[in-house]
């Protein structure tokens, strides 16, 4: 199975997302930068099996990209050999604890 990782650490909007997606996937020349086109290409033009993973998503990005996540979850249900997952960015608890201590100590 081919696994493609999309790193959301530097993504701010859909334009950034589609730029990274085009770098990582062989999308057809007629691909339009929208969710309908993405759904269509997953269901008929991408080389499968494919697992798509979004890494380093922030909580804010969950809201910004909510429609994208829904589209890919639907595609996962409808297209055999396509799967999708997303992961939130991780924070080091030790750093957050020391920051909180420094903020209260000042």
TrEMBL record:
InterPro entries the record matches: Barstar, Barstar-like_sf
Upper taxonomic lineage: Bacteria, Pseudomonadati, Bacteroidota, Flavobacteriia, Flavobacteriales
Official protein name in the record: Barstar family protein
Family of this protein: Belongs to the barstar family.
Boundaries of every Barstar (barnase inhibitor) domain copy: 1-84
Originating species: Chryseobacterium caseinilyticum
């Amino acid at each position: 199975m081919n696994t493609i990782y999309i790193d959301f650490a530097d993504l701010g909007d859909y334009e950034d997302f589609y730029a990274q997606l085009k770098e990582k996937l062989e999308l057809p020349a007629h691909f339009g930068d929208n969710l309908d086109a993405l759904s269509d290409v997953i269901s008929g033009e991408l080389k499968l099996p494919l697992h798509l993973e979004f890494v380093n998503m922030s909580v804010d990005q969950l809201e910004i990209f909510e429609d994208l996540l829904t589209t890919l979850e639907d595609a996962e249900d409808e297209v055999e050999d396509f799967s999708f997952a997303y992961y939130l960015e991780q924070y080091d608890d030790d750093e957050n604890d020391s920051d909180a201590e420094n903020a209260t100590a000042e």
